Amino acid sequence: MVLAARAGMLEGVTAGGVSPIFVGRAEQLAGLAAALATVRRGEPAAVLLGGETGVGKTRLVTEFAGRVAGSGRALTGGCLELGPAGLPFAPFTAVLRQLARELGAAGVGALLAGRPASELGRLLPELADPAGQSDEAYQGEARARLFEQVLGLLERLARAAPVALIIEDAHWADRSTRDLLTFLIGNLPSVRGLLIVVTFRSDELTRTHPLRPLLAELGRISWVERLELPRLTRPEAAAQMAAILAHEPSPGLIDSVFRRSEGNPLFVEHLLGCESMVPASLRDLVLASVQRLPEETAELLRVAAAGGSRLDHALLTRVTGLAEEDLARVLRPAVSANVLLADGDGYQFRHALIQEVMHEDLLPGEHGRLHVRYAEAITADPTLVPVGRASVEIARHWYSAHDLTWALITAWQAAAEAGRALAHSEQLGMLTRVLELWDRVPDAAQRIGADHGSVLTTAAEVAELSGESERGMAFATAALREVDPAAEPARAALLLNRRASLAAQGRLESRRDDLTQALRLVSDGRHEAERARVLASLAHALCKHDMQDEAKAAAEEALAIATEQHDPATQAQALLTLAVVVPEGAVSVDGSDVLGLLAQARAAAEEARDCSVLVQAAISESHVLEGLGKHLWAAEVARTGLVEAARYGLSRTSGAILAVNVAEPLVAAGRWDDADEVIAGAIAAPSTGPHRSELWRLAGTLALGRGDLDAADTALARATDLLHASGDQHPQVRLPHAQLQVELAAAHGQTDVALSLASDALSASDLQASPRYSWPLLTAMARVAADVLDTPPVARSPAAADLASDVLATVRREAAKLAVNGPVQAALRLTLRAHAARASGAAADALTRWWTAVAEWDQLGEPLPLGYALYRAAEATLASASGGRTAAETPLRRAAGIARELGANRLLEDASRLARRARITLAGGPAAAEPTEPDRPGPGLTPRETEVLRLVATGASNAAIAAELFISAKTVSVHVSSILAKLGAASRGEAAAIAHRRGLLVASD
C-alpha cells in the first residue's frame, strides 16, 4: 500500500532495434488459432488480415506459423512490388520452392498421386515434366489444370496434417495471383485441414485499388473472416520499448515515442533512438503515398502540415485563401489515397509522422509565413480550433514563426488558461517556453506583468502537480537564487518547502536540511502560517522514513498553529500524518482513534478546497484502512480518490499511487480479477513517479498466486527496472519487492537463491522501523526456510539446511523484537510461529498454531492466507499422533475450494497433492482437484507408484515413505516390489538409477 507520491530520456539507444519478444496481438493470434481449429474439425476457414504499413502483420503471421509447425505445416509466400502487372503467381512459386526444398521435387510429385505436374512446372522449373509440357498459354484448359494441381497438392498435404497457407502483401498481387486465391478460397469446403491466411496493407487500398472488390467479394463468403490488426496500445508499445532497450523506459520516453509513432510497431522501433528528427530509414516509407499525389495536392498538404496533425476545413480555407470547392478538389486525391482522413468538419493526417515529415520539408521563409497566418487566423476567430485550444495553438504558431515577443506573451497567456483547465503538463510546457524566451525579449517582465522569480516559482509548483520532480527542483533552486532570505523570509521558506516536497523520493537528509532552514527563516513569530506549512511537510517526511515519534511531534505542532491561524489545508496535512503514525505507535489497535483523525482530515481538506490535499487525504485514508485489515473499505476510498485525481488533473502524479491503493486491498480480499483490471488500466495510463514499480510488483504477486511464473518473472523484471531508476528506498516499496523476489525464486525451485535473497534482505533492511511491511516479508522468509527444513534429510543438501536454519533463526530474532499493530500483523505473527514449529518438527505445536492462524485469517477475510493456513492445518492434522483422514478432510477441502475460487493454482496443486497422498477426495472431482497429468509415470507405473519411486530415489526407507504418503509400511513394500518388476531392476538403487536415466522423476511441483 502506498502512503505518498523522474523522467530520463535517451540513453544508449540504437535506432531501428527489433523487439526480441512478441508483444500484444493476443486477440488476433487467438483468431488465427480459432481458424486453424476450425479446419482441424474439417470445416472451411480463411482469414483476410489487414493493417497499415509497419503495424506488424508479418510478425504476427510468423509467430502463428511457428505455432502451426508443432502440429502441422505452414507454407508462406509473398507478393512482390513490381508495378501494376506484378509477377504472376509469385507467392505460389515461393510456396512450391519451400515444398521442393523440404520434400524434394520427387516428393512434391508424389503428392499428386501419379497425375502429371506439368502445370506446376510453369511456376517452378524443378517440378517440370517435359513429357507432359504443352505450349498452351496461361488461359483455357492449361490455366484450369494449374489451379486444380495447386488445389490438389494442398489437399494431399493437408490429409497428413493441417496446413496453413499464408499469402503476404496481397495489395501487390497480380491478377493471376488474385484469381488463384479466389479459386482456392472458394473451394475450401472440399479440402479438409487447409487454412488460408492473406495479409494486405489496408492503407494502400485506394478507392480504385484492384484488391478492394476482391476483398468485398470474399468477405461475403461465410467461412471467410476479415481481421484488422490495430496499432499497439500504450502499454504494449511500452513493453516493446522495454524489450528493445533491455530495461524499463522512462515515462517521458514512452510518452514521446508513443505520441510520434501512434503505436505503429515499426515506427516505434525506428523512433526509439531519434528524439526529434524522423530517421532517413523511416522518412521514405512515410512519404511513399504522398509522392504519388499530384503536385498541387502535395503542396497543399505541406500547408496543412503547419497546422498540425488535425485541423478544421474552415481553418484550412482561411489560411489557404482557397474557395470551398477548390480546396475540396485539391484535397480529394489525398483523401482517396488515405493520406488524409475526412474527420467530421475537418481532416486528419492518417499518421502523425506524415504531418511531421511534411512540416520538416517546409522552407525557412515558407515555414515562418505559414505559422504567422495560422496564428492570425485563430486570433481573429478562436472558433476555428476546438474549444479551449485557441491560446495554446496561437502560442505554438507564434513560437514556430520565430516571433519571440508574441511567442512569450501568448505562451504566458496559454499557461494561465491551461492552469484554469487543470491541464498541468501543458501549463508546465508553456511556462518552460516563457523561461526559455525570457532573455531574448528585453522587456519580458513588462510584457507579461510578472518577474522572472515569480515565473520560476509558478513553474516549480506546476512541475510538482505534473510529477516532474527533477525539473521542479531545478526551478525551485533557480527561484531561491533570486530571493533575498533576509528581505523575504516567508517567500524563501516556502520555496525551500516546495523544493523539499519535490525531493520526496530522495534522501531524508537533503529534505530535512531544506525544511530545517525554512523553519529558521519563519521562527520569529511573524510568519506562523508559513511555519505551520513547513512543520506539516517535515512531519510527512519523517513519517515516510519511519521516524514516527519525531513525525508525531512535528504534526501536532503544525496542527496547533494551523488551527489557530484557521488554515484548513495545513490542518488536513497534519491530521493525515497523525492518522498514519497512530497505528505504528500502537495508540489504538481497533482503529477508532485513527478513523476519527481521518474524518477530521477529510473535513478540513474539503473546507480548504485544495485539490492536492483532497487527493492526499484519499491516499492516506486508504493506506491506513488497509493496514487495519479493512480491505474493501480501503479500496473504495482509493477508488473515489482516483475519480477526484482525474477531476483535478492529477492522474499523472497521483493515479499510480491511488491505483496501488485500490489494487492491493482487492488482492488481499480475494478480488483478483478486479485487481487485475485496476492494475492493467493504471499501467496503461501515462502516469509518472516511482509507484509504477509497485503496480508491476502487484501484477507479479497475482501471477505468482495463480502459478503463472513466466508472467511473474516479467512483472518482477519491470518492477525492478523502475525501482532502480527511481532510487526509492522507502520500506513500503523495498520490503514488498524483496518479498516477491524471495517467493518467486522459491516457486521456481531455486531454494538456495531464495534463501540467499532472504539473508541479504535481513542484513540490509531496518526491519524494526516498519512493522507493517516487515511482518509479511519475515513470514515469507519463514515459509521458505521451513519448506527446506521440513524436507527429509536425504532430499536436501546440508548447505541448504544450514542456510535455512540461519535464516529462520534471524527471522525469529527480528520477529521477537517487532511491534504488532492491528489484526493483520497479529495474524502474520501467528503464521510465522506456525512455520517455525513446522520447521522444528514439533507436530503438536504446529497443529495448534495452524488452527489458531486459521481462526485469525478467517476473521480478517483474506482468502489466500486463510486457504494456505487451512492446507497446513490439514497437513499437520494428518501428521499428528491423533490425526486422521476424517479430521483433515474438512480443512483440506475448504482450502481447495478457496484456491479454485481465487484461481490460486499453486495452493490448489499443494492441496491436491496432499489429498492424493492421504487418499482424500476433494470436492469437484479429480479433474478439478489436481492437474491433468500430475506426474510422468514410467511404463506401467501408476501415479502412486511414481510417488513411491520418487521417495525411493531419495534413499527413504519404507517406514519413512509410509509416513510421508500416509499409508502402511506393508503397502509401501508391495509398491516397491511392483516398481522393481516393472522397471526390471534388481534393487532399489538400480530402480532409482533407471528412473533418473529415463526422466521418470520430473516432479509436477
The CA-CA distance between the termini, in Å, is 31 Å
Number of helices: 48
CATH arch. level architecture of the largest domain = 3-Layer(aba) Sandwich
CATH fold field value of the largest domain: Rossmann fold
Uncertain residue ranges: 1-16, 584-592, 925-938
CATH-level-4 superfamily name of the largest domain: P-loop containing nucleotide triphosphate hydrolases
Largest sheet: 5 strands, parallel
Q: Report mean pLDDT, rounded to a whole number.
A: 84
Radius of gyration: 35 Å
Q: How much of the residues is beta strand, in percent?
A: under 5%
Helix content range: 55-70%
- Say how many strands there are: 8
Based on Cα principal axes, name the global outline. Answer: flat
CATH class membership of the largest domain: Alpha Beta
Total individual domains = 7
Category from helices, strands and their pairing: mainly alpha
Structure in a nutshell:
By secondary structure, the chain is mainly α. The protein is built from 48 helices and eight strands. It has seven domains: 203 residues, 3-Layer(aba) Sandwich (Rossmann fold); 86 residues, Winged helix-like DNA-binding domain superfamily/Winged helix DNA-binding domain (Arc Repressor Mutant, subunit A, Orthogonal Bundle); 89 residues, no CATH class; 108 residues, Serine Threonine Protein Phosphatase 5, Tetratricopeptide repeat (Alpha Horseshoe), CATH 1.25.40; 113 residues; 75 residues, no CATH class; 56 residues, Arc Repressor Mutant, subunit A (Orthogonal Bundle).
